[in-house]
Each structure stands twice: as structure tokens, then as C-alpha cells.
Amino acid sequence: MRRPTHVTRWLGSTAVQCLLVLVALVWITPLAGLLLSSLRSERDNASEGWWTAFTDPAQLSFENYRSLLEDAGLVQAFWNTVLISVPTTLLVVGVAALAGYAFAWMEFPGRDALFLVVVGLLVVPVQIGLLPVAKLFGAVGLFGTVAGVVLFHVAYGLPFGVFLLRNFFAEIPREMLEAARLDGGGEWRIFRRLVLPLGRPALASLAIFQFLWVWNDMLVALLFADGESQPLTVALQSQMRQFGSNIGVLAPGAFLSLAVPLVVFFAFQKHFVQGVMAGSVK
Amino acid sequence: MDRKPTARAAADPRRRALRRRRLLGAAFALPALLLLGALVAYPVVFSVGRSLFDASGDRFVGADNYVEMVRDPATLKALRNSALWVVVAPALLTGLGLLLAVLTERVRWATAFKLVLFLPMAVSFLAAGIVFRLAYEQDPDRGVLNAVVVGVHDAFAEPSPYPTARARDGRGLAGGPADGYTSGELRPGSVAVLPFVGVAPGAVPAGAEAARAPAPAPDGLAGTVYLDFTPGTGGRPGVVDDREKGLPGMTVEAVRDGRAVATARTAADGSFHFDGLGDGTYRLRVPAANFAAGYGGVDWLGPALVTPAIIGAYLWVWTGFSMVLIGAGLAALPRDVLEAARVDGANERQIFRRITVPLLAPVLTVVFVTLVINVMKVFDLVYVIAPGPVQEEANVLATRMWLVSFGGGNDQGLGSALSVLLLLLVVPAMVFNIRRFRKGGS
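^ inputs. structure came back:
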């Protein structure tokens, strides 16, 4: 066998590096296009590609963003997104932590069978809930409200949340819990003082995953939210019909909806990747 | 008999404590179980039942809605598209992820690279949809993809110089821009002037000079291709006037017995000449390629390519996921096995095929199954990227289900049947999850 010399190895690694740089560029380009388009006037966008901004930076301005922030409907939609995703995240984490602890360390009839059902529900597509829950919400007056959207998201976030937290809590050493019980700690006290602090990494991953999932959702809100409770994704989606003439709204709007997940992404990289990885079986 | 009270007294607190603990356990799990029961489990049962009734829900129709799926062309199309998605996307993503994971192991800036590729996972499908609607724009002056495609195309095949030109009628050239133009018969030693119109003065290349017909060699043909138009007045049709310019870069062929025997390209003054032609009669031909319309790029979001185009956007979102997961698997491979193989003289490709891939099989399976589940449910990207007129061509199960149930179709029977089908399709994944969980023990 021919041993690779330094030169061939160097050539090989240079080729690999070039290839990877190319791939990274391909990945960045669409986002760069969106960003630059959002900073150009409607007229520039209609006549020339965004890449001309590299040679003519005078095209760029925050005009689109300024008019976006003056659009009461879109600003309201942005706040709706916050109003939907923050409570959903808190509720999923809270309810799933309680249930996760119960499934891991408490006894109640049918516990193990019920947990298998939860595992089974992991992959149930939201589509199957749309029509029945819409009827249900219609009957109790939740249809078209932020609360309805939140409840739906919480329910469909729970199987994964319970599954993740139950498995994480199950790793807590039995002796620790028994010592706490012998010390006379009630279950609620143990849950708050021992289980929640120990489970922090899993809770963080779940929270980030759930937050992004709901922040980025369009389908559920498309059905369950109305004109006043609609989040940003739905508000922007309704502008897609006149795509060509609407880039001045759509591009900055999309960037606004991107900004929060990107901040979360860069601030909590590790938890973010873990959350997405753990949530992948969904 | 008389000991019973004491026994009961001892057992009672314990039993009561047990009952209390069980109640407490149920209470902890209750909120989750209630929500799951009412909003997830009950809808499954409801949808299965609803799928057996007609559109309005009044009449029991048995399996008719399921038969309708394959009978209704639009729904059948969605089924086909979903099948295409499931066959293509997970395999491509797993392969791409594996390739990139292996390659990034060899560079120092792997972390930065993974960050860049993972970034789209943070982006909503709606935003990704807007990003790609922009990238896929047909007009090469707006869509970056077609700008690249047209750029590459024009680098290899020069764009035709005069897409709007046509020959002056009745001045010696027969034919049309679609088939090219042919002159009358000529013998060696003759001169031909080939008048064209329909080129805007601004579209004439900057280097063009006043038209001039050169003298032919005795055994050749010569002539000029020119713009038969004098700005202002005084131009005579079919005659080379003073201020009329040649059309440089035109291709002219000398044709004998229907076959091109020589080809020339016009100079700055529009002149061309053929030398050393044998005796006989010739015709001059100005081929259609001179007038071909400019290449407009690929119609990415047209009916033919819309699904592959959307799958492309999906790859952009998910490749990072597949790469990072497989990369984590690679990092956990036993180094000594790989080293031993290297010492034994195995080359990199053998190591990859015989050792890396088999050892990675469990990770690859998880990635693949995950992707299949997610691809099956793809909705937003298709809904957002496909332009209205081609929505029908691009539909997958989830978008079709939406349109049928809520988007004007208003057939909740068929809609429910489609959602049940979606559920049935992910049942294998459900079984996979439960089995993996039970094998895992805890």
C-alpha cells in the first residue's frame, strides 16, 4: 500500500476545507439574501437582485423595519407570538415535570401502562387533533383565543415533555430520595427542593425545544387563532399571496420572527442542540 | 379477635399512608393525563369515527372516504408526492449528514461549521419558506439561484446576440427567426448584403462600426450583415447607407446542397467572407441560434420542479440536524478499532465502509426514522413555498388534509380519513419508539 505523503495529505485536507467552505457559503446565502432584501426598498428589490447591495451599499436602509413597526397589526401579531409561546413553555415544563416525577418515583394505579400510552402518543401528528379539538373549543368558547392555542400546544407538547423528564428523573439515585422521605419531607417539598434543581439540564432543554416549537408554529395557529390572536407566522403567511410585491413586508417580518430563535440559539447553544436532539423522536 | 383492633391500628396508618401516597401520585400525574386524554387521545378516537361518515357528518359511509383518497385525483397526487418525499428526503439527509460529519472530523473549525449548518433548525418553516421563495424567484435579476444558473449557462454557451432581430422583408433573405434565414443562390465571387431590422439602436454592441461589404476572393463569398436602419431620415431599405452599422458577432454559414460547408462570424463592421469554396452554387444561411431568446433560467416553482425544489429547502433546514447527530455517533466510536485497522494497512475508504458505517448503524437508524416521521408530517414548507397556481401539484398529505378540511374543501369526512392515514403511517415509528424504550429498561 502506498503511504500518503505529507503533500498528498495536505492537498486532501485543502480540498476538504474548500468543499466545506463552499457548503457553508451555500447555507448562509439564503439567509443573507433575506437579510439584505429586508434592508432594501421595494423598488430595488423588484428591479435587481439583493447581491447588488454588496457593490452599492447605499441601497440599504432601515426604512422597511420602520414601517413594519408602525404596522399595528404586525406588532400585535408579534406580541401574540410572545403571549402564546411563553405560557405554553411554562405550562409544558411545569405539568410535564409533575407527571414525570409521578411516573418515575410515585405509585398510582395503572402507572406503567399509562406511561407506555404516553410513549405511544409521542408521534401522534397534530393534524389528527385539529378538527375534533376545534369542535371542542367551539363548544366551550376557546376557539379563536390565545388560551385555546396555548392549550392545544401544551397538550401536544406533553408526551415528549413527560417522556424526557420521567427518564431524566428516573436517574436520580434512590437513596437520595429515600433519605429525603425519611427526613419527613412531603412529596411536594421533595419535588421542589430536590427533583427540580437536579433536573435543571433536562428542564432547560425541554423549555428551549418547546419554546422554539411553539414560536415557529404556523399550522396550529392558522386554525385556532383568529385575526386578533394570530401570531406573526400566520400574519405573515396571509401576505404570501402577493409575494412578489410584498417582499418589503415579508422579508423584515420573517427576520423579526427569526431574531428571537436566533438569540435563543446563540445564547443557549448547548441546551438548544440537546433539546432538538432529544426532541427528535417527536 | 381481641388482637384485631391493635393489628388494625398498626395497619391502618400504614395503609392510609399508602393510599395517600397513591392519591398524591395520581394527583401529580393528573393535569398531564387530563390534557392528553381530552386533546390528544380523544381526538384520535373521534377522528377514526368521523372518517367513517360523509362530508356533513350525517350519513355513515363506511370506508368510502378511504376509497375516495385514491379516486380523487388531487388527493392521489398528494399521496404520490408524500411517497416521493419519504423515499427521497430521509435518505438524502442521512447520506449528506454522514458525509459532512466524516469530513468535518478532519478540520479544526468543525464547531463553527456545525453551527452554520445547524442554524436553520432555529428558523421557522414559514421564514425558511420566505427565504426560499426569494431564492427560487424565476427572474434571474431577483432569484439568486437562477442568477447563478444563468451565469453558468452563459459562461459556457454565449447568449445569442440579437434575440429581437429579423431580416428586412423581401430583400433577399427567406425564413424566420425561429428557423433562421437563407439567401438565394450565389456563385463564388459574389457579394451579399444581408439587411436586418428589429435591433434597438441601444442594443447594437458598442464596438460596431459602419457597415461595409468587403470584396470577395474569386473562389469565395463575402458580404455584410447590418442593421438596415438609418437614424433620422434618408435610409433606403436593402441598401447599405452611410450611417448604418454592421452587426458584429452574427454567425453566417455557407450552405451547399443543404449542408453547411463553412461558417464565419461577422466582424465589427458586419463583414464576413468565405474563401476557398469549390465551384458550384451556394446559399448563405443566418442560423436561428443568432436570434434565440435569452436563457431565462430554471422554472423552479413550476409544476414540474416544485416538489424537488421544496425538498431542497427541507434539506437546507435538516442537514445540520442529521450531521450533528451522526457526528456525535462518530465521536463515540472506539478509536482503538479504527487505529488497529489503520495499522493493519486498511485505507480510508475501506475503514469507512467496513468499520465506520456498520458501527454507526444504530445512530443512522435513529436519524433515518426521525426524518421519516418528520417528513411524513411536512406541512408549512409546502404550504408557504408553492405558489397558488401550482399548490395542487405540490400538495402532500398534510397540506391536502388541511385544504380538504378547512381550506375551502369543507369535507371533514375525507379530511378525518386523511388525518387517520397520517397517524397510521407513523404507527411503525410509534412501535419503534415503544420497543426502543422497553429495551432501554428504565
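The first helix of chain B runs from residue 4 to 50. The CA atoms of residues 146 and 297 of chain B lie 5 Å apart.
thumbs up if we can close this ticket
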